[in-house]
Structure formats: structure tokens, C-alpha cells
What does this fold into?
Amino acid sequence: MKVSEKTMRETLSKDIQVSDLVNQRLKDTYEILERGQQASGKKTHRGRNLRVAAAAAAIICCGVPSIVYASVKTGFFEGMFGNTTKKSTDVIHREIDDGKGGSVAVDIPSKEFVPVDDAAAESMIGQWVTETPIVRKIGEHTLTIESFAYDKNGAWMYFTLGREGGVTALKGDMDTNLTKGAYFTDESDFYFHVVCSEEIFGGDNIYIDTEKSTEDLLYCSDYILWSDVLEEGDTPKIVIETYPCTRGELYEMSETEQREAAIETETIELSDKGPIPVHSIDMGENGYLEYSPVSIGVDMSKGMGLTGDEIEDPYYMKRLEIVYKDGSSYIVSDKEACIENSGYVMGAGKWYKTAFNRVVDTDEIAEIIVNDVRFPAE
Amino acid sequence: MDALLVKRAQRNDMDAFVALMEKHKIGLYKVAKSYLRSEEDVADVMQDTVLSAYEHIRELKNASYFKTWLTRILINHCKNLMRQQKRCIVSDEAAKTSETVPDDDREFYALVGELPEDYRMIFLLYYGEGFHTNEIAQIMELNENTVKSRLKRGREKLRQVLCY
It folds into this structure.
């Protein structure tokens, strides 16, 4: 086909006819949204229930299967495991301060985010995701834990933190998303962390959705991994500490002054749903691991050829890959290729734990490869 | 004009929201048709895009960025659907004319089908929808230099069939 650049521009820019099917679908959608506004009685109503209504109406009115899946946990699935507002990144080369007046070159691994299928996620983990938000006013900030889920390896907490005039307690941006996650500032007059018991705390990485977030309201995806093995009866809780001053001022106090400071502590149970079940692959001394659709824990003392301190050193996790039955794979981590497609990783004793940044269909796993060790899934 | 409608839509003016969607409907339709074969799939992603836009329009900080933002939502929905259905863009199929294609539009579909797969969307957004390279970079989550080089390479590839 011969065409000039001018003709190409003219042809591609011309209007084309939208099909009757699409026009009708759009018309139905507008009507549903309009009814949703009216039914709520207030013009400010938005959100998840409209998607439920639209999905139902699409099936009833149009009589065709619709991929519009309605879930009250859509925010959780998308925030924790999707890619609508998360941007995949290539390896980033950076020079950072080495603390000695010079700089050192570091490579920030590439990170890939993929779309999440709400329906599939709901079927795989939905019954263990909380639906009732936990809301706490902490000083001038409002913490809303929208949804929470956990398993033996870790937990996933989707929350917002708001303050009129701008959030000052938590600092996070694209930079922290690439590195160690959002952090509490010295200006904050509170702090919270997730625990499972007095001995088991959650190490975490808070990812800020920079597209959805505004100065007054941060949307946060918190990937949490447990510091130790959960015992029967261990359940996740959030511990909120509220201070009479800022954290910066608290740190400048003496230990005695800190002990005497009027710190208020509130502990809140995070879930009544129980843990997401994990599968295990036990190859005896040749290897052992446990995984769920959203996490994996590998016993590095078995089958990896490691001894002594090496077992507890995350450095020795070189490659972690999940291979599916159709031949495709999810490369969770590859140190040589500088890939880290996870929400958070942590070495906890002999356990190397990873919180996935996507939902994995465990029924479709053929094998899991850890370094050179292959774990066939049943 | 978009900016005014966006501001009104952000204040829950449904008429303004519908006007915005209708204004951009054809552009979105062209992009969706370049990804998806099935008209029902196109209807699904268009509906999903409207719903997503409705849910999130208040989070759009810069009203002049609306068309870029909306197009990106659509493309993400197209890609999501394709992943779910594990379909690939079938360039030859997209080019085939059929009795359901209006006569006036055959040239458009034929040209879209001719464009190499790697460059199709960039060409459509650049030549068809008038986006700048930095906007295309944001829509397709690419580096702007990548967009520019693909435009250049795409033109070079087509040089044998382009006449000036």
C-alpha cells in the first residue's frame, strides 16, 4: 500500500463510525451512573457500588457477557496487585552518597507491575480480605484501613492517610516507591506498625500511589512480612502510638523523659477472616517452601547448599521464578538480571520471604525454581 | 473547552461528564479498535473506561491532561482484556474489510492494518489523535526518546511505501 505521510495523517485523524453496540453500551452506562447519583440522594456519591450496578445492568440490558467485574475489594486488588496507577520501571543506575564524602554507584532493580483480574483475585483470596474499613482519627490525621489480608508469610494492608492542609506524618513519593518505601517523618506525632504477637512484628514496605494520592490524602499499599513463624492463635494487629509531641522531639529526649512521656497506645485487631491458606512443597533435606497466591517463604537451610551465616543472608537468594503450566513464568527475583518483581522481601532467620506484587494462580503453577533447585508443584 | 467540562464533571455534573465522554468517544473507539477485534470486547473496554473515568475524575489534578489520562485508562483496559483472554493483536485481521465496516471507514482500517504492530499505536496517537511525543510516552508508559525513535524507525520502515 502506498501512502504519503500527509495521507496517513488525514486517514488516521478522520472520524470513523462508532458501532451501534458500543453506542448502546455507553448510553446504558450513562443511565446507570445517572441513576446511581439520584439513588444515593447526594451528588457526591461515587465508587464501587456504581460498578456493581453497571455490571448487573450490562448483563441484564445487553444480554452479553461482560468483563466488567464488580467487587467491593477492587481498590485493594488494584492497589496491591494491579498496574493501573503503577508504572513498571527498568533498571535505574544511581550514584548515592557513600557517607564518606564520596559516592557509590548502585543499580535499582527493574520492577514490573501487571494487570489484576478482579474476578480471579476474588476467587483466589477474596474470602480472606476484610471488607469493613477501620477508621481512626489520630490527631489531625485520619487513618482508614480499607482492606487487609494475611497469610503465614506476611500481610497486605491497603490504607489511606489524610489530613486537611496536607499529610505531614508520612513521606512517600516515586523515589521511596523505588527504594525503601514511605516512612514516618520527624514531624509526625504518631506511629503505627503491624504485629502478630509480642515477639512477631511485620517488616514492611509502603508504596504510595502517586497518581491517586493528593497532598491531603495518600493512598498506600503496605506489603508486610512476618519476622518469625506464626504460632497457632497469632493474629495480626495494628499498634498505634500517639505522642504528646513530634517524633523528632521525642528522639531528642533522654531515655527517662521518653519513658515518662504520655504516649498513648491503641492495639486493633486487623482481621476476622483468618489467614490465606498456604501450599507447601516438601522435598525433605532437598528443599522446603510454602506459598500462597500472594507470598512465598523458602527455607534456605534445605537444598540450597548453604551453611552457617549464609542461610540467613538474603544475598544468597539469586533467582526465584514461578513457572506456569502454559510455559510462561513470573520472575519474582533475579539478582544477576537486576529484577525484583515483588512488593517486599525479607530474610527472617532461615526463611527468605517475598510478598508478591501480583496475584498468582497457584492452580496453574508447574514448578517453582529457587536458585538452581526445582520444586515441582503438585 | 475540556478544562471547563472536566471541572464541572469533578463537581458531579453528570451532563458535563457525559459531554466529555461523547466528545472523546470516537478517538477512544479508534484506539480500542486498533487493539481488539471483537466489537463486544470493544464495548466492554469502552464501558470500563467510562466507569474508571467516573470513579477517578476527581483525582485528576490537571484538567488539560484529561485526554491523555483518559486514553491511558482505555489502553490499560485493552491490555488487561488481552492478557485475560491471551489474545494478540492480529494485524492482518484488523486490516480485513468486512461487510460490517462502513464504506467510509475502510481506508482507516486498511491503513491501521498495514502499520507494523510495534508502531501502530504510536502512529495512531501521533498522526490520528494529535498527541505530542511526551503525551504518547505517558499514555504508553514509555520513555519519550523511545517514542521518538519508534516514530522515526516506523517512518523509515514505511519509506518504501511512503511517497513524498
